[in-house]
Amino acid sequence: MTALLSPIGAGIGMADEESLAQFGHDVWWVVLVKALLIFVVLVLLTLFNIWWERRVVARMQHRIGPNVHGPFGLLQSLADGVKLALKEDITPKAADKLVFILAPVIATVPAFVTFAVIPFGPTVNFFGEETPLQLTDMPVAVLFVMAIASIGIYGIVLGGWSSGSTYSLLGGLRSSAQMISYEVAMGLALVAVFLYAGSMSTSEIVEAQTDLWFGLILAPSFVIYCIAMVGETNRAPFDLPEAEGELVGGFHTEYSSLKFALFFLAEYINMATVSALATTLFLGGWHAPFWIDEVWAGANEGYWPLLWFFGKVLFFIFIFIWLRGSLPRLRYDQFMHFGWKRLIPIALVWIVAVSTIRAISLDGGIDRQYLLIGIGVLAAIFLVLFFVGASEQEAEPEAAAEVPRGFPVPPMPAGGAVRGAARPLTFESRSPVTEPAAATRSAGEEI
């Protein structure tokens, strides 16, 4: 362990001193302009993502999608925003009014703040000033993003609690459990990135991927992060806090007008946040794809990296949309089971493997034969962890097949059981006329 931590700790210190030296020297108006540009870009990106999601899902379902407001329906999102602003703002009588009003703000503000440490590009000439295309950076920038993103969950939890509605409260509780479960897996997936980059600074992690992206050499971490980021943002098939099938609308059932619009805005900005973080940590950040970089020497200079960065971010957002249009919502027990019994154990085993390989490589390398044997053993462990639970779930339907078909009926209390009520309600015996009559006769006979 000492052999592992000492070289990495030294690397972190040296890397941070070099990469962070370019931050903190901007004049005040450059800082204000960059902060304003981040705000405007996120709002416009949200309007575009809403329109894009509707068009893509419509194409998947063989529909037309928005096509009335503006060319190709591009102004549909703006029209929806105006509609929400003009709607009546209703506050339930049973609600805690102060918390009810603050909850959407608590959910929205952290969504904007997290982009302060995301690198959009290299150092450029910005109206005569040399400045990096990044608002700021810090030695623990990735941990800062995760901490601020966690604060946004409190807005959802408090919004559900303060509404005074049972359904909203259940949605808020689901969101808190979802955050705890999948943020653990997300954090574990990032440990391998920190070990290879030797830093938690976002700009330094991007620089460490100049030759090879971490998404390729740390593929298990990349897959775990992609799954966890869908659960973290409450998107389908993990949109259980707002499951309209059983919770009406979830945590925002009682919200309307601009308060609902803030929750909606926070969800789409959080999608952009986790997509930008995935781009930064696993896909080389603002660096151009390898084949472009080899052909065009200036692909990573000037403002061109903005094109590569937002192209990668939109790729992840398309994955979000694709999942929503393809997969059904999971049951809550399936969702929690997958997070705690699949993602977290696999992430822990992978961290041990990466740490061991990293420590051995820093000490002078490892024999190729032993490396291949180790990779084979890890692959076997992953397969066992993945398929053992699947075999257990396949055995459940066989046991359930012996139960008579029909809706499950809970047993009546032992003291006041009614004859005929505890009998399984099968599809063959159900009749809208005879079944209630039989139940009434049974109850009358008991009385």
From TrEMBL:
> What are the coiled-coil residue ranges?
none
Is Metal-binding one of the keywords? no
Enumerate the HAMAP family for this protein.
Answer: NDH1_NuoH
Q: How does it sit in the membrane?
A: Multi-pass membrane protein
- Give the region (Disordered) as residue ranges: 428-447
Query: Under what name is this protein listed?
Result: NADH-quinone oxidoreductase subunit H
What this chain does, per the record?
Answer: NDH-1 shuttles electrons from NADH, via FMN and iron-sulfur (Fe-S) centers, to quinones in the respiratory chain. The immediate electron acceptor for the enzyme in this species is believed to be ubiquinone. Couples the redox reaction to proton translocation (for every two electrons transferred, four hydrogen ions are translocated across the cytoplasmic membrane), and thus conserves the redox energy in a proton gradient. This subunit may bind ubiquinone.
Q: Which GO terms describe its molecular function?
A: NADH dehydrogenase activity; oxidoreductase activity, acting on NAD(P)H, quinone or similar compound as acceptor; quinone binding
- State the similarity comment: Belongs to the complex I subunit 1 family.
Q: Name one GO biological process term.
A: aerobic respiration
Q: Which GO terms describe its cellular component?
A: plasma membrane
Q: How does it assemble?
A: NDH-1 is composed of 14 different subunits. Subunits NuoA, H, J, K, L, M, N constitute the membrane sector of the complex.
- EC number(s): the record gives 7.1.1.-
According to UniProt, the reaction catalysed is: a quinone + NADH + 5 H(+)(in) = a quinol + NAD(+) + 4 H(+)(out)
Any idea which UniProt keywords this protein has? Answer: Cell membrane, Membrane, NAD, Oxidoreductase, Quinone, Translocase, Transmembrane, Transmembrane helix, Ubiquinone
Q: Name the InterPro entries for this protein.
A: NADH_UbQ_OxRdtase_su1/FPO, NADH_UbQ_OxRdtase_su1_CS
Superkingdom of the source? Bacteria
Under the heading Pfam families, the entry gives: NADHdh (PF00146)
Report the main location listed first in the record.
membrane
